[in-house]
Amino acid sequence: MTMKILAISGSARQSSTNTALLRAMRTVAPNDITIDVFDGIGDLPVFSPDLEGPDLPDSVRAFMRMIFDSDGLLISSPEYVRSIPGGLKNAIDWLVSGDQVVGKPIALAHASHRGDDMLTILRTVLSTISASFNENLFFRLPLMNETPESIQEILKRPANRQVAEQFLRDFASFCRTQGHDRPDSIIL
Ligand SMILES: Cc1cc2nc3c(=O)[nH]c(=O)nc-3n(C[C@H](O)[C@H](O)[C@H](O)COP(=O)(O)O)c2cc1C
Q1: For a 10 Å CB count at each end of the chain, is N or C smaller?
Q2: What is the mean pLDDT of residues 123-146?
Q3: DSSP 3-state assignment of 7?
Q4: Where are the domains of the chain?
């Protein structure tokens, strides 16, 4: 069975190394794993509980639908001011009261040798919103200041490609074991 991974970058930057890493991972993924990269984090309005329910903005509705339709989430984010970038935290806040993310398998990638303060906080946040956040699955490459083109090339180097493929295989099998936790339907 094909596993559908939704990849979310915490950076809204055009030439983001984290977004480029997620896009490059798509090209090395084994055949039975598809990766869709969500690049609409900047389109989500600032979260307010007042906007939940019938007034849910369309961009948020579409985001929740993508999360629901996926078998797992792969998140890769920069560190901003020793923490999670506001855009990513805002996206996560939108998910807290819904049931799309509760049992959703989640793993982290990271495109820098730095950013460990952010990673610690993000791990705390993700283990709060999902019982299926897997802290042990983590793929990291030091790609700070690299261009999207060079990131593509770096990931295709045999040693990196092998680790990336194994990471994706491990994440896909984790998603398979957690699959039964998905709710049967969603009302959006
Ligand atoms: C507003 C801002 C704040 C940042 N704060 C930190 C920080 O606290 N610690 C750190 O290691 N890097 C910090 N950085 C650097 C980014 O984490 C780093 O450049 C990252 O690789 C960018 O990811 P991206 O290429 O996906 O956008 C900051 C960058 C910006 C723009």
Answers
A1: N
A2: 97
A3: strand
A4: 3-181
Name the residue at shortest CA distance from atom 27 of ligand 1. Answer: 16
Q: How far is the CA of 126 from the centre of ligand 1 (A)?
A: 20
Q: Which CATH architecture has domain 3-181?
A: 3-Layer(aba) Sandwich (3.40)
Of all protein residues, the one whose alpha carbon is nearest to atom 20 of ligand 1 is 78
Answer whether 77 contacts ligand 1 (Cβ < 6 A).
no
User: Per residue in 137-151, pLDDT tens?
Assistant: 999 999 999 999 999
Give tens-digit pLDDT for 64-74: 999 999 999 99
Question: Which whole number is the average pLDDT over 51-73?
Answer: 95
Q: Which DSSP string do the residues of 89-150 spell out, in sequence order?
A: HHHHHHHTTSSSSTT--EEEEES-S--HHHHHHHHHHHHHH-TTEEEEEEEE---TT--HHH
Residue of 8, 21, 114, 154 to mutate, ligand 1, most atoms within 8 A of C-beta: 114
Q: Which helix (H) or strand (E) holds 37?
A: strand 33-38
Dihedral of CA 65/108/105/30: which sign? positive
For ligand 1, is residue 66 a contact (CB within 6 Å)? no
Could you identify the residue written with the tokens 């490059």? 24
